[in-house]
Write a structure and sequence with these properties.
The protein is mainly alpha-helical and 390 residues long. It has helices at residues 2-22, 38-46, 50-67, 83-104, 108-124, 147-164, 170-191, 193-196, 201-217, 220-228, 237-244, 256-276, 285-299, 322-335, 341-347, 354-362; strands at 377-380, 386-389. Strand 1 (377-380) and strand 2 form a beta hairpin. Helix 4 (83-104) packs parallel to helix 6 (147-164) and helix 6 packs antiparallel against helix 7 (170-191).
Length: 390
């Protein structure tokens, strides 16, 4: 009888150990290729930096709220603002957050959520035709009434997949890639050829999403088309967008408010290119145009961080928006530009990326808490022949 009890106790201990193993991951071997690597994961997990601690605690609180609700993937039927439209937007944002959280503090519940979300979209996407609603003057999507939202969705989904695919089975990965990620990339880059090759922020979101997907899936053709355009001649694609959407001083063609929105795919895709195609030397391109783009964006704000009201600017949007947080973090990492640190300190928040961790650790007690806005001359137009005074 005693031997049976001992054996039972051993089995229970072994089962518990196996369950614990499921939720313990070795982040030092992370295969992530885009914005959050093994190094960044370990910094977030082990740092006592106040800004980093606040960022990770805030993320975990959000994720617990996310996990308290069931995964729901509605049939796309509504125009912008409608239930299905907003739910799909919420889904990709929450999937991205849970994926980061899983790498920082793993649990079976988080991984189940991630797999269920990816599986649900992989089941749905191949069945979709064009969205039933049309948006005037904007090409449509499948999940949404405009293709721009489709690109933003893939932009976040591929990052979530990059951070979690190693925790999926081979069969699960094959399904997600063949039924969701590749079809989305094909829709954006082949079926929506004109948008993909457009010199416009819609095109930027598309090339960023498709290019990062190519990096994660090991598809060089997908990467090359995103960087150099569908014909791979640099007349369209990311390089052309950098050349034609910013003036020589980094002024964005649609004005500061849209600059805020577009800077995220520009800076994030550039970081991914640097990590996967360093030979492109993307942060050196056009005399460091991305550094100028970030600096000029910040300079075109008032002392409350509000963007100058050009081209439909919304007062509620300031430089504390997520897009600018990403931009300042990555620009600091790539250019070691200490002038950006006061902005990051004033925001008191970072992106959960390698760049965010580096920026947070660069802030010290001596870092100023006021961003200098000197008088400056900002040229507009591709060749800098138009002028904006600041």
């Amino acid at each position: 009888m005693l031997q049976r009890i001992i054996l039972f106790g051993f089995l229970v201990t072994a089962i518990i150990a196996c369950e614990q193993e499921k939720t313990t991951i070795d982040s030092s071997n992370s295969s992530s290729q885009l914005l959050l690597s093994a190094s960044g994961i370990n910094t977030f997990k082990n740092s006592d930096n106040t800004i980093i601690t606040q960022a990770t605690e805030s993320l975990e609180n959000k994720v617990q709220e996310i996990l308290s609700e069931p995964v729901i993937i509605p049939q796309p039927v509504d125009a912008g603002g409608g239930y299905s439209h907003e739910k799909h937007k919420r889904n990709y944002a929450e999937l991205y957050q849970v994926a980061i959280s899983y790498n920082l503090m793993a649990s079976d519940e988080k991984l189940t959520y991630i797999k269920e979300m990816f599986d649900g979209y992989a089941n749905m996407y191949p069945t979709l035709g064009m969205h039933p609603k049309d948006k005037e003057n904007h090409p449509g999507g499948k999940l949404y009434w405009q293709g721009l939202n489709e690109a933003v969705t893939l932009f976040y989904m591929i990052q979530a997949y990059d951070m979690t695919r190693e925790f999926m089975t081979e069969e699960e990965r094959a399904k997600v890639e063949s039924d969701l990620l590749r079809p989305m990339a094909k829709f954006l880059s082949v079926d929506s050829y004109d948008v993909f090759n457009k010199i416009h922020n819609h095109g930027t979101w598309s090339v960023a999403a498709v290019g990062m997907t190519g990096m994660v899936l090991g598809d060089d053709d997908m990467i090359d088309r995103s960087i150099y355009g569908s014909n791979k001649d640099s007349k369209t694609g990311f390089i052309a967008q950098l050349d034609h959407l910013f003036s020589s001083d980094g002024f964005y063609s649609e004005g500061p408010y849209y600059h805020r929105y577009a800077i995220l795919p520009f800076i994030a895709f550039a970081e991914a290119i640097e990590n996967n195609r360093p030979d492109v030397k993307i942060f050196e391109h056009r005399d460091g145009i991305l550094r100028k783009a970030v600096t000029t964006l910040l300079q075109l704000t008032d002392e409350q961080g509000r963007f100058y009201p050009i081209n439909d600017a919304i007062k509620s949007k300031t430089w504390e928006s997520d897009e600018v947080v990403f931009a300042t973090n990555i620009a600091y990492k790539q250019y070691n530009d200490a002038s950006l640190l006061p902005v990051i300190k004033m925001m008191n928040k970072i992106s959960l990326t390698d760049a965010g961790a580096i920026a947070a650790n660069a802030i010290t007690d001596t870092t100023e808490d006021f961003y200098q806005r000197p008088s400056m001359f900002v040229a507009d137009g591709v060749e800098g022949k138009s002028v904006d005074y600041h």
